[in-house]
Amino acid sequence: METQGLSPPENYDSRQNQSEKEKEKEKEKAIDDWLPITSSRNAKWWYSAFHNVTAMVGAGVLSLPYAMSELGWGPGIAVMVISWIVTLYTLWQMVEMHEMVPGKRFDRYHELGQYAFGEKLGLYIVVPQQLIVEVGVCIVYMVTGGRSLKKFHDVVCSDCKQIKLTFFIMIFASVHFVLSQLPNFNSISGISLAAAVMSFSYSTIAWVASVDKGKQEHVEYGYKSDTQERTVMRFLAALGDVAFAYAGHNVVLEIQATIPSTPEKPSKKPMWKGVIVAYIVVALCYFPVAFVGYWAFGNGVEDNILVSLSRPHWLIAMANMMVVVHVIGSYQIYAMPVLDMMETVLVKRLRFPPGLTLRLITRSAYVAFTMFVGITFPFFGGLLSFFGGFAFAPTTYFLPCIMWLAIYKPRRFSLSWITNWICIILGVLLMILAPIGALRDIIGNIIDKQYKFYQ
């Protein structure tokens, strides 16, 4: 005899499981709505443009004339132009791959890596390299911001008492203790826009002032190193400097994740529009600064073109403040994916409750860490050629190509297959050669006691 009104046990269990799954999904969605990368998806195409400009046109643009002096006219022009073309191509690949699986978005670089190489291997390949780039850039910008503030102070108040670089780095870091609490990419869009305008402005000042100063007397364009071995090593180190200048790929998927997307209007269309605008701005910044700066000063150019210019004082002071504003925005752009990784691990793996307290502690700790390393190693920028080869070259020049080959499997010897393999070969050569030259330079500076802690 059947009991009326009672469901069979298996139906009850299945409904309970379904209810638990729905609760789990709601919980996951709530976490995704809180995490920095996925919390806001209402960005416009021009957000992509200035975020990419801010990420790419870093203060490293001011060292491009020095890189040209180590490369020489022919190789220097070739390396600059080829890098621009190759990185634009690999950036297009990443924009295309963001939504290659219908109904799914690869919001983070490592998620795309996991799809291409497998859950564990993808993490091991992408995350260490991405962290080296993003944390490394944040530390460098701590030092750059502090140095530019110091330079501004010294130019404006030349008779004032000298203040240690350490204190200027701490002043620069104090801004980030506040700004790092902004929740996501869209909330820092105003800062990013200001930074993009500043980067274009100080790049323009650098090359226009060089034109105004004109070609210096007794200018020389030959390699300045006294030995052939040192010339070769510095040439290789300069390749790492150029690789560092094209490092924006590490945040491109995270930027695209902020743009709304539907099957009819996928995010890749507005994103690519923004990328094209950004790359035109990159060309207008990089090429004139590199080529005009080298033309004006030859192999006597300083590693920061603004130092070579030095006059008029008011213009150099203004350019240094522009650098400060720019690296404030750039720091935030590169910090956001790192903060997202930290908060994802804390909330999803370690089950910390998401909220203001967690964000305050996590983000303040990250800013404090980058400030401490910047203060301790104020020569960290000198190590960038070394890192430039190891991490900047793979994530920018050839990792997108490898993922493209792994996912799309283009026909052997087709145009796509050949193009990707050319990029991979060039990128691998850069990854191997740049750190060799940089390491030789680092060892030389240690022997000459050029590196000083806590300046």
What is the tally of beta strands? 0
Specify the number of helices. Answer: 16
Indicate the radius of gyration in whole angstroms: 24 Å
> Can you give the mean pLDDT?
86
State the secondary-structure class. mainly alpha
Which regions contain 5 or more consecutive residues with pLDDT less than 50? Answer: none
The biggest beta sheet is recorded as:
none
Helix percent band:
over 70%
What does it look like?
The chain is mainly alpha-helical and 455 residues long. 73% of the residues lie in helices and 0% in strands. The chain has helices spanning 9-34, 45-56, 64-71, 73-97, 109-117, 119-156, 165-179, 189-213, 228-245, 252-256, 268-297, 305-309, 313-349, 356-376, 384-408, 415-447. α4 (73-97) packs antiparallel against α11 (268-297). The radius of gyration is 24 Å and the shape is globular.
Quick description:
The protein has 455 residues and is an all-alpha fold. Helices cover 73% and strands 0% of the residues.
Please render the helix and strand layout as text.
Layout: H1 9-34, H2 45-56, H3 64-71, H4 73-97, H5 109-117, H6 119-156, H7 165-179, H8 189-213, H9 228-245, H10 252-256, H11 268-297, H12 305-309, H13 313-349, H14 356-376, H15 384-408, H16 415-447
